[in-house]
Design brief:
Number of helices: 14
Family: Belongs to the serine/threonine dehydratase family.
CATH topology of the largest domain: Rossmann fold
Protein name: Pyridoxal-phosphate dependent enzyme
Number of strands: 10
Order of helices and strands: HEHEHHEHEHEHEHEHEHHEHHHE
Structural class: alpha/beta
CATH class of the largest domain: Alpha Beta
Distance between the termini: 43 Å
Strand content: 15-25%
Cofactor: pyridoxal 5'-phosphate
GO molecular function, one term: ATP binding
Domain Tryptophan synthase beta chain-like PALP: 18-307
Shape: globular
């Protein structure tokens, strides 16, 4: 596994490697949401990606980059859902066994999908320590290769391909791109792609107030914990890693926090006006644009919709 921040060629190579297995997701626009925000918004729809989230990109790149020796005892990871599905999906593609640790309160839609890809699921309490402890036990017992959900350069290079496509598929330059931030794999990848393929395009992030650790880490330069963790955006609960924090501090302009009410309102607008299924974590960015009109007004803004894996029996509206 690589030990340095992915360069331009590394991201291009990752894109070539994963292209046969992923969708080149569409970019949608909405006149209504443009008027409401005062900006020109271009939505990169990773909710239409394989497994329903951008995580398929990083999971595939990480697994396709492993040697047969590293794959022979299977792979393991911990995740509340989307990365779990990505690793299960990618492992199935290469015929490797997947051992997935999931918090016991993960959405059932995500648990069922992981099992559907043939992975073996182990449940744990939802703390970073419990997750890592359960994975360590699996590695000890099986010899499986651990793939970190975000603090892994192959994963980051895979996630970077989403904004690379966004930049390539528009015939003009974006003023800004905004992505959600949890562990920072998508955000750090997004900022690298903007830096290499669209210099001058600023990168921002949206983060739930109920899991606001990235904004603190961004300011202090060390990994901070959120003052409290309570948000509907279940995909954004994890703190940053040292690899993602380094990239984010170098290439991201700012991080904005939004309340659960603002996330739900943005999510509802996307369902009603764009007719697309977006999970709360994917609506955080639109909420952040609405909340900061002075930053985005009159600008061309790329919005990464991270995923659409939502429990339809538990919609917040």
């Amino acid at each position: 596994m690589s030990e340095s921040i992915p360069g331009k060629e590394v991201i291009e190579k990752a894109h070539t490697l994963i292209t046969p297995y992923i969708h080149r997701t569409p970019i949608l626009t909405s006149q209504f949401l443009n008027q409401l925000s005062g900006a020109e918004l271009y939505f990169k729809c990773e909710n239409f990606q394989k497994i329903g989230a951008f995580k398929a990109r990083g999971g595939l790149n990480a697994i396709l980059s492993l040697s047969s020796e590293q794959l022979k005892n299977g792979v393991t990871t911990h995740s509340s859902g989307n990365h779990a599905q990505a690793i299960a999906f990618a492992a199935a593609k290469v015929g490797a066994k997947a051992y997935i640790v999931m918090p016991e309160n993960s959405p059932s839609v995500k648990i069922n999908a992981v099992k559907g890809y043939g992975a073996e699921v182990t449940f744990c309490k939802n703390t970073p320590e419990e997750r890592q402890g359960a994975v360590d036990k699996i590695v000890e017992n099986t010899g499986a290769t651990f793939i970190h959900p975000f603090n892994n350069y192959e994963v980051i290079a895979g996630q970077a391909t989403s904004s690379k496509e966004l930049i390539e598929d528009l015939d003009f330059k974006l003023d800004a791109i905004i992505a959600p931030v949890g562990g920072g794999g998508l955000l750090s990848g997004t900022s690298l792609s903007a830096h290499y393929f669209s210099p001058g395009t600023e990168v921002f992030a949206g983060e739930p107030e109920g899991a606001a650790d990235a904004i603190l880490s961004f300011k202090s330069g060390k990994i901070e914990k959120a003052p409290f963790v309570k948000t509907i955006a279940d995909g954004l609960l994890t703190p940053l890693g040292d690899k993602t924090l380094e990239i984010i501090r170098k290439y991201v302009k700012d991080i904005f926090t939004v309340s659960d009410e603002e996330i739900i309102a943005a999510m509802q607008l996307m369902w009603e006006r764009m007719k697309i299924v977006v999970e709360p974590s994917g609506a955080v960015v639109l909420a952040a644009v609405f909340k900061n009109p002075e930053i985005f007004k009159g600008k061309k803004v790329g919005i990464i919709i991270s995923g659409g894996n939502v429990d339809l029996g538990k919609l917040p509206f």
